[in-house]
Design brief:
Among the domains are: 48-110, 2-Layer Sandwich (Trypsin Inhibitor V, Chain A); 116-177, Trypsin Inhibitor V, Chain A (2-Layer Sandwich), CATH 3.30.10.20; 184-251, Trypsin Inhibitor V, Chain A (2-Layer Sandwich), CATH 3.30.10. It contains six helices and 15 strands. The protein has helices at 2-10, 13-42, 58-67, 127-137, 195-205, 250-267; strands at 48-49, 71-78, 88-92, 98-99, 104-110, 116-118, 140-147, 155-158, 165-167, 171-177, 184-186, 208-216, 225-229, 234-236, 240-247. The strands form six sheets. Strands 2-5-3 form a three-stranded mixed beta sheet, with helices on one face. A three-stranded mixed beta sheet has the order 7-10-8, covered by helices on one side. The longest helix is centred in the first third of the chain and has 30 residues, at 13-42. The chain is elongated and about 110 Å long.
Length: 280
């Protein structure tokens, strides 16, 4: 019964006519959407060249953008001595870009009053961290003066007191440790110590461990300090001490022995003792 109905439907002229009408109607709707409706909605093939509204007043910039069919919004206000108050410093999108009609242009406006920020406490920070704190707060790093102190590149003082409120862009000068103390310190006896123990002794005395040089030594246990410099009874706090440390000597002996063996093999030849001679 069902198969008979399907057969009758597929062999009916009316059925094929209905299908054709539906296909044509769908194609017509798609054509109308693509040709008229969607272009109107998306403004396809329409574009506006963004004008340059920097270096003019906010009021003039808004009026000029509106005349181009564009909207505007103040995104940020910054202080810039090169511009009068309420003048445009920057814009996004930038001038000469092609955008859709009614696109919003974001403006950065110069403010008459410089925004303020709280001065951070930089004392005892490393110089690198202090620079980042100043940048994040909107301040500028001024001069850097070095004074004697044990911990190198540590902030000892700052020109503006922490917690004060200053205009962004203000300059803050820093006093930084040079890593050298103000007093002489006895140098510990390092010769004969293991490397790790010598490093601990150097740091405990207030010095810094410098270059570590390794020297092959036959009669000294490896990783033992055999020399250091400068060899002084006293040094200024924070100075660097260079260590000379013993290393295995047998590694060099093995290499040399292998080289001698290789040379002997190369030199062997007819008539040389030790080489097998062909038997008659």
């Amino acid at each position: 019964m069902f198969k008979a109905l399907l057969k009758a439907a597929f062999t009916s002229v009316r059925f094929y006519g209905t299908v054709v009408v539906l296909l044509l109607t769908g194609a017509g709707v798609l054509y109308l959407m693509d040709t008229f409706v969607m272009p109107q909605y998306t403004k396809y093939n329409e574009g506006v060249t963004v004008p340059d509204v920097t270096k003019i007043s906010l009021q003039d910039a808004q009026a000029q953008l509106a005349s181009y069919g564009l909207r505007s919004e103040v995104l940020d206000r910054r202080a810039n001595a090169a511009y009068p108050a309420d003048y445009i410093i920057d814009q996004s999108p930038s001038p000469l870009q092609i955008v859709k009609p009614n696109r919003k242009i974001y403006l950065t406006v110069n403010t008459a009053e410089r925004p303020k920020a709280v001065v951070p406490n930089l004392i005892n920070m490393s110089l690198r961290n202090a620079e980042m704190q100043l940048q994040n707060g909107g301040f500028q790093l001024g001069s850097i003066t070095y004074e004697s102190s044990r911990f190198r590149n540590t902030i000892l003082n700052q020109s503006e007191a922490p917690g004060d409120t200053l205009a962004k862009g203000s300059v803050i000068h820093l006093i930084v440790s040079d890593g050298l103390g103000q007093r002489k310190v006895p140098v510990p006896e390092l010769i004969g110590l293991k490397l790790t123990e010598a490093q601990q002794q150097i740091r405990r005395a207030g010095f810094r461990v410098g270059e570590i040089r390794f020297e092959p030594t036959q009669d000294v246990t490896p990783n033992t300090v055999i020399e250091f410099s400068p060899r002084e009874e006293e040094l200024t706090e924070g100075q660097t001490i260079v260590l000379v440390v013993s290393e295995r000597f047998d590694a060099i002996e093995v290499i040399e022995a292998a080289a001698v063996g290789a040379d002997s093999t190369v030199q062997s030849g007819p008539g040389v003792p030790g080489q097998n001679q062909p038997q008659n």
